[in-house]
Amino acid sequence: MFNIERKVQATVTDNGSNFVKAFREFGQREEVEEGSQDDNEDAARFEDVAAILEGEGDDERLQFFLPPHQRCASHTLNLIASKDLERAVSQGATRKLFYSAMAKCSAIWNKAHRSPLAAEAVEEIGKMKLVIPCMTRWNSEYCAVQKIVSLTESQLAEVCERLAVPKLLANELAFLKEYAEVLKPLACALNLLQGETKCFLGLVIPTLLTLKKRLSDKKPHVRFFCEVIDTVVKAIDSRFQKLFSSREAKLATASSPQFRLWWLPDEEKEDVRRMLVAEASIMEPAENTAAAASATLSDSGEEDFFSYGPAATRGTNSGPPEEVRKYLEGTNKKLGALEDFPSIKQVFIKYNTTLPSSAAVERLFSHGGNLFTPQRNRMTDEHFEQVLLLRYNSKICAVAVE
């Protein structure tokens, strides 16, 4: 009725093996790309005739399939930070330093978490509250380390003494400070991809490219993390290889006024421009385009009467190639700039409906420990919908969710 199957661009999940297996078995087969091993269109295909005959009259089952699968960008980046980064930093010359420094930090966190008196002592000395890291979220560990290194050496020594934990040595503290400084772009990238205000697929590639550049720029100035930076950059290239070559991701980014084609190397810009023109050419014009044009020109009678100043030029539809050219020459980075380019706007809507991360949806359904309680285990569909809408609008609505 609503043609939903043609509107769903992708389903975003985390990297769990259950999701990966389900979409591999029941997902849509991807179209053959140029240069793949199946370029020969005349190649023989073998079908199980018996299975087809047995399934005759049961064609409805063929209509059910999973949409294209996309792995959550923030979860993938979190894996790089928690797995690849930890593997790199716990090897070689930094191994002993990493474990000793993190062990002493853990002692401080455990004391502050378990003892209200210890937490009050830290707050009294440092004029702040410590962040206790969450095991499943690397950026919480980063924030916790950042809080510790923000203390002065005298404050940190006093905290360790009051909490009766081993003091951090000079080289351990230097290691932690470099950890906080070098990995700051990684924490910023995670926060961007997990955000709720710019949930666009077109945000992912520029974020990753900027992250790689900022990490590489820090290499000449580091003491402990040179090899770690190389490992993280390689992990980004490896884990996001499919996304970097994705046509959908490139169109989502190119149709975003904030990025256009500025993020691309010169040798790739022409190819993406052609893709954008081809996609804009098949887009149906927005319904409100004609209304907006008539509203703009509604006072044309007055223009004909008065002769002051230059005559107003009426906008003409010069076709997608010209529209794409003007769009790419523009410099307005605000999303509202798309109102002047109706075909590009349709491309943006089509390819940026895919969320870059599942974090926003997980936060929407998350309700602390209140999931498997008598309050929620027998909810009707209508009640569940009401609770979900109230929770989503809780910032602007003071009505209780339960």
TrEMBL record:
Signal peptide positions (record): none
MF GO annotations: protein dimerization activity
Pfam families xref list: Dimer_Tnp_hAT
Xref: InterPro entries: HATC_C_dom, RNaseH-like_sf
Domain HAT C-terminal dimerisation: 340-393
This protein's name: HAT C-terminal dimerisation domain-containing protein
